[in-house]
Specification:
The complex is a heterodimer of chains A (about 290) and B (about 280).
Chain A (H helix, E strand, L loop, with lengths): L1 H37 L17 H7 L2 H14 L1 H16 L6 H14 L2 H10 L6 H8 L15 H27 L2 H9 L4 H12 L1 H17 L2 H6 L11 H10 L4 H29 L3
Helix pairs in contact in A: 2-14, 3-8, 4-8, 5-8, 8-11, 11-14, 13-14
Chain B lengths: L1 H27 L1 H10 L21 H7 L5 H32 L5 H10 L5 H15 L6 H7 L3 H13 L2 H9 L4 H12 L1 H17 L2 H6 L8 H11 L4 H35 L2
Chain lengths: ~290, ~280
């Protein structure tokens, strides 16, 4: 009797995870399987004849110059992640000192990460306005006569987006570092001080190695999150000027919902998945190594 | 002697550090300040340099424009609130439910199922857009709010985060309840949920901000203007008022303001939630 009850209680596990599993099935697993199937078809929106085309889409992808361009643009976009991590680290180290108004400062640095969606992209778009915008106004006033065209020229547009992305991620990196810095033992730092270590040495030789697992984690999660994001780019430039801001995730969206090439779009999206898979595998390998500093 | 040295070197250092960091913090929030200031200016003042932070004749007309007429932000607000609130409540509850199962009941296949669950985090939304579009159209929920609400009820991050939290609650608490004859349902509702209130609040706030800011799904799954959420409405406003910079910034303020309120009220929870799931994850 009691045993039976225990058994029934254990079976309740399936009841508890059931609804969520149903959601995963409906909105993740089945669509993912469907997308995998679409990769081998010529599926187009409003096109009644869906044919199985084998590896045609994959061959097409490998010969598509736009695919390689979008990969390069994606790499340029991802550069923002390590830069933002560096800024986040420096900010966290300084905020971890004895300062006034610490809570307020932390909040101000963190604000862009929470509040920013597309709305803020439009604000940046105006601030980057090349002829009259406040950013170039500032640059001219300090003697730069030919400030960059930011979002309006093909050579600078990706860097302008990187600036926004560094700004956006900085606060997140900072609060995670702040938490990691709390764990660095004060005894160790005191000991280093007594041994006559300089501030820079303590930072480089003690603090930086100790927070390296955090750095690694921020790098991995930052890369994965960034590679999936195309919202602000779609909102500001739609991939332009030219194709200068068409990153891979945006290229998927364009193929699917601008050209309605849904079979091909699925193929590109799996290339994106492969990149995420590689980063995740690196994380598994890295985690084992980085846990012991 | 020691005291004196401390005071003389410490206080100035602290002050200088604080001032430098405050100056940089103001640079960080400059876009927000510029947005608000521009939304209150006249068109002629928008691009004046040096920047006029305080317009000489602050005007509310741009804000009024955004909130009135047939394309008032009121509609977008109601749509966004509806989607975000239902999504937030549903996702928080369902995540807690699943997290309890994964964290505190030992059933067959638990580990494997959790791995399947987590592996879904690797699938980028771009893989899912096309099949979801086809499936939603087939099911008749494409171009309805359900296309955003239903998937919004499930968050893998939420299950992961709450599972971490539930695992930190000592086992003795549920064991003694078990001996008293309470089943998992009663333990979940009466014991665990009340204990998890801060974690639930954290997830709810983070989830709300995600749903409110969600532009990409709305872009893919909604076409009727009357269904637009705030990010889409904002984009629409900007496309139609390309040269009205003051109006654009008034519209942007409308989009960001609720997030600033959520941020100011919920900052503590958000920081705690993100740090816990990152550091212990």
């Amino acid at each position: 009797m009691n045993n039976n009850w225990m058994k029934r209680q254990r079976l309740l596990g399936y009841v508890f995870i059931g609804p969520s599993m149903l959601g995963v099935l409906l909105f993740f697993l089945i669509p993912a399987a469907y997308s995998f199937y679409l990769m081998f078809t010529n599926y187009k929106f409003m096109n009644p004849t869906v044919r199985f085309v084998g590896f045609d889409n994959i061959t097409r992808l490998l010969h598509d110059p736009m695919f390689y361009l979008s990969l390069r643009k994606t790499m340029l976009f991802l550069m923002a992640v390590p830069v933002s991590i560096a800024f986040g680290f420096v900010t966290a180290v300084i905020l971890n000192q004895r300062l006034y108004l610490k809570k307020l400062l932390r909040g101000l640095y963190f604000m862009p990460y929470i509040t920013s969606g597309v709305a803020v992209a439009f604000v940046w778009m105006l601030m980057f306005q090349p002829r009259q915008g406040p950013i170039n106004g500032l640059l001219r006033s300090i003697g730069i006569d030919n400030p960059p065209g930011w979002l309006s020229t093909t050579t600078t547009s990706m860097y302008a987006i990187d600036i926004i992305w560094v700004w956006f991620l900085l606060g997140y990196n900072m609060i995670i570092y702040l938490a990691a810095l709390q764990e660095v033992s004060t005894e160790l730092l005191e000991a280093a001080k007594i041994d006559g270590a300089k501030r820079g040495q303590v930072l480089r030789k003690i603090i930086w190695p100790l927070v390296s697992p955090t750095t690694f984690l921020l790098l991995i999660t930052g890369l994965i999150m960034t590679i999936k994001s195309f919202g602000i780019i779609q909102a500001m430039t739609q991939g332009g000027p030219g194709n200068s801001t068409t990153i891979l995730s945006l290229y998927v969206y364009q193929n699917a919902f601008r050209y309605y090439e849904m079979g091909y779009a699925s193929t590109i999206s799996w290339a994106l998945f492969l990149i995420i898979l590689v980063i995740t595998v690196l994380q598994w390998i890295g985690q084992k190594k980085w846990v012991h500093y | 002697m020691e005291m004196k040295r401390r005071l003389s070197t410490d206080v100035p250092m602290r002050l200088v550090g604080t001032i430098v960091m405050l100056a940089l913090a103001i640079v960080m929030i400059m876009p927000f300040l510029w947005m608000i200031s521009t939304s209150l200016k006249t068109p002629a003042e928008v691009f004046q340099y040096p920047i006029k932070w305080f317009p000489s004749n602050p005007t509310w007309e741009h804000h009024i424009k955004v909130w009135s007429g047939s394309k008032s932000f009121g509609t977008y607000y109601l749509n966004s609130l509806k989607i975000s609130i239902i999504g937030m409540l549903g996702a928080t509850f369902l995540s807690a439910f699943a997290a309890y199962g994964f964290a505190r009941i030992e059933f067959k296949g638990r580990g494997a199922l959790f791995m399947v669950y987590l592996s879904m985090m690797m699938i980028p939304p771009q893989v899912l857009f096309v099949p979801k579009f086809i499936m939603f159209e087939w099911a008749g929920i494409y171009n309805t709010h359900l296309a955003l609400i239903l998937p919004g009820l499930f968050t893998i991050f939420g299950v992961f985060m709450l599972r971490q939290f539930f695992m930190t609650i000592p086992n003795e608490i549920s064991e003694s309840a078990f001996i008293d004859g309470a089943g998992h349902f009663r333990i979940f509702f009466r014991l665990i949920l009340p204990l998890a209130k801060p974690a639930l609040a954290t997830l709810a706030i983070i989830d709300f901000s995600w749903q409110w800011n969600d532009y990409e799904n709305a872009l893919v799954f909604l076409i009727d203007e009357s269904l637009y959420t705030v990010p889409l409405g904002l984009q629409n406003f900007i496309l139609e008022n390309m040269i009205d910079y003051n109006g654009m910034m008034a519209a942007a303020s409308a989009g960001i303001l609720p997030m600033i309120v959520v941020f100011v009220l919920g900052q503590r929870f958000i920081i705690q939630g993100l740090t816990n799931s990152a550091v212990k994850g």
